[in-house]
């Protein structure tokens, strides 16, 4: 016999509520009523309803809600004062959201759930998105049992949730992080972030952010804005600015990042779309400071918030219940775009740290990204920057950069999984994969629209052509860095001899060519603007190229070795320029320097051994 919907309505009176019991309450102990007196053995058959009615008569007085006698040992884990208060709150007309009903979402509220509906829900395997009390979508798999609720996740149990409006100021003051708004300075940092950091992966839509910021300042809540996100953006922009120690007792980037973390701790009670964006930017900040573990943890938190919000699930059905100023389709598009931005950041951060990316291994049904439309861009470096707008064709091309970058990220996830799994795997399978993936990357390059093409074989722009956009330059740098990572494991014996296959020779040449291409792109970027304005990802890509140049300069004689020496010099200079924004670039320099010292020491040792062998042979001939 199934219980009806009314049987589980926790907003009923105390008498009705405590008159309810399970159809089968069979514990291995003597059965007692709520006052501790012996009660009849419950019956799971036809007599269960009369027993329930008798059971209810012992709890008619609300003052008797406290458990006494032997029953207290059974229910001593329940705080009945809190529970009684919850029941009273549930009866208030002003709290309709506290009514919890167990029924299928599509069922008529005036009808009992049928056996088939309950069975279907009980045996379900696929989850859906639910709308929590705060209006945010939440993802719960069927193993959580919360899919048994209706469309809303409203229950009597309401854990305390802090808000940034009411709880942040005291915490910021205690931490010495009070900030008196300075619109001019904030606009400067916003412009730096949205000019140099955001266009590459497009983690934050500028228009949506400022629209949400305006709504928040007027007392409304918006999914696409949060104080944590605002301060994370200010921190990101501050990395490209000259430190102002006159108003801060630390670097501006650290100051705003610290503020973002205070807000973040509050927002994690009920994270939103903007919270996930803030986590991504904080991960980038920590990586820029060389705090790899912190950055990696923030990337992991971002991945968990994404699944908490169900961004890995593509469905417009639940989105129509969100009361936003956007249609369900628009919201789904925003969620899809950010999912792929987060996926891209997660994969390339994983490559940078040599760790498996969480989002690369999650099941999802999010469609591949498409162009985000026209993206106007101008090289802002500070007040008075020249208003050089990109052309109409370039604006469309820039809107497509994140989609092409996400395509590279998907391929990088496969490269990391199959070539760098962390455990032993078949070399033959790896070789076959490298050959196949190399073809895929070449096809990716060939499919780029004309406005995204760059000739990376020379360090200058051909006469009569405009300098390429800095964002496009970095897209090509990412491609060549991946080419190196794909073929680097197969760089073995480079001198033709028996037993050396074409793949070894081809891999060595491909790595050298891509390292040269990255060097050329760095020089093109330098003529366009300063190296301090490159995206953080360029630090890793430059280090990858520098290591190959070290290898070539210490391995190949003649012109090839000299060219590698020149490429190494450019990489070292570029990393020094990037250090103005990213402290972690100095570690890239240290990696290159360490590899060079080791290679030179090996060369000297081999040369010394060769001289000793020659001297020994000459001495033997004289004897």
Automatic annotation (TrEMBL):
This is Xylanolytic transcriptional activator regulatory domain-containing protein. InterPro entries: Transcr_Regulatory_Elem (IPR051615), XnlR_reg_dom (IPR007219). Residues 193-444 form the Xylanolytic transcriptional activator regulatory domain. Residues 107-117 have a biased composition (Acidic residues). The keyword Aminoacyl-tRNA synthetase does not apply. It comes from the Eukaryota. Keywords: DNA-binding, Metal-binding, Nucleus, Transcription, Transcription regulation, Zinc. It comes from Exophiala mesophila (Black yeast-like fungus). GO terms for biological process: DNA-templated transcription. PANTHER family: TY1 ENHANCER ACTIVATOR, ZN(II)2CYS6 TRANSCRIPTION FACTOR (EUROFUNG). Coiled coil: none annotated. GO terms for molecular function: DNA binding; zinc ion binding. Residues 89-117 are annotated as: Disordered.
């Amino acid at each position: 016999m199934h219980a009806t919907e009314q049987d589980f309505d926790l907003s009923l009176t105390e008498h009705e509520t405590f008159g309810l019991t399970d159809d089968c309450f069979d514990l291995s102990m003597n059965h007692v009523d709520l006052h501790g007196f012996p009660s009849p053995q419950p019956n799971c058959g036809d007599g269960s309803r009369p027993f329930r009615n008798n059971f209810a008569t012992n709890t008619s007085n609300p003052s008797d809600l406290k458990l006494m006698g032997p029953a207290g040992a059974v229910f001593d884990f329940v705080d009945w004062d809190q529970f009684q208060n919850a029941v009273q709150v549930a009866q208030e007309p002003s709290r309709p959201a506290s009514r919890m009903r167990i029924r299928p979402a599509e069922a008529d509220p005036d009808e009992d759930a049928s056996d088939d509906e309950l069975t279907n829900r009980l045996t379900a395997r696929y989850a859906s998105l639910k709308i929590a009390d705060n209006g945010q979508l939440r993802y719960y798999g069927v193993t959580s049992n919360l899919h048994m609720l209706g469309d809303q996740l409203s229950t009597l149990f309401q854990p305390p949730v802090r808000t940034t409006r009411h709880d942040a100021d005291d915490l910021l003051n205690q931490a010495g992080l009070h900030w008196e708004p300075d619109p001019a300075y904030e606009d400067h940092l916003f412009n730096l972030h949205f000019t140099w950091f955001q266009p590459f992966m497009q983690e934050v839509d500028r228009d949506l952010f400022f629209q949400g910021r305006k709504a928040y300042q007027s007392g409304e809540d918006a999914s696409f804005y949060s104080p944590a996100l605002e301060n994370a953006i200010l921190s990101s922009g501050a990395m490209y600015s000259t430190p102002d120690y006159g108003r801060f007792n630390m670097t501006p980037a650290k100051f705003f990042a610290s503020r973002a973390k205070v807000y973040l701790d509050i927002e994690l009670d009920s994270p939103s779309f903007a919270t996930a964006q803030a986590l991504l930017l904080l991960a980038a900040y920590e990586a820029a400071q060389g705090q790899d573990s912190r950055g990696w943890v923030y990337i992991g938190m971002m991945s968990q918030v994404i699944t908490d919000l169900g961004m890995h699930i593509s469905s417009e059905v639940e989105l129509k219940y969100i009361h936003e100023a956007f249609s369900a389709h628009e919201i789904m598009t925003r969620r899809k775009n950010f999912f792929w931005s987060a996926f891209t950041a997660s994969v390339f951060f994983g490559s940078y740290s040599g760790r498996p990316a969480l989002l690369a291994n999650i099941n999802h049904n999010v469609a591949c990204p498409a162009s985000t439309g026209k993206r106007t861009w101008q090289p802002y470096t500070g007040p008075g920057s020249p208003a050089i707008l990109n052309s109409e064709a370039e604006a469309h091309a820039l809107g497509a950069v994140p989609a092409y970058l996400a395509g590279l990220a998907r391929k990088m996830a496969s490269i990391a999984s199959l070539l760098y799994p962390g455990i032993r795997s078949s070399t033959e399978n790896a070789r076959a994969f490298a050959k196949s993936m190399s073809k895929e990357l070449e096809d990716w390059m060939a499919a780029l629209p004309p406005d995204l093409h760059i000739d990376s074989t020379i360090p200058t722009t051909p006469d009569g052509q405009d300098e390429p956009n800095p964002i496009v330059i970095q897209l090509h740098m990412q491609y060549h860095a991946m080419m190196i990572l794909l073929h680097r494991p197969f760089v073995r014996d480079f001198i033709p001899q028996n037993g050396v296959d074409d793949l070894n020779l081809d891999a060595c040449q491909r790595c050298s060519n891509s390292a040269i291409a990255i060097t050329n792109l760095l020089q093109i970027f330098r003529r366009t603007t300063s190296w301090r304005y490159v995206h953080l990802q360029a630090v890793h890509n430059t280090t990858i190229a520098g290591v190959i140049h070290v290898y070539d300069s210490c391995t190949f004689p003649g012109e090839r070795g000299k060219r590698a020496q020149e490429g190494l010099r450019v990489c070292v200079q570029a990393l020094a320029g990037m250090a103005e924004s990213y402290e972690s670039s100095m570690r890239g320099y240290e990696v290159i320097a360490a590899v060079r010292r080791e290679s030179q020491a090996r060369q000297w040792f081999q040369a010394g051994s060769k001289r000793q062998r020659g001297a020994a042979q000459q001495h033997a001939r004289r004897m």
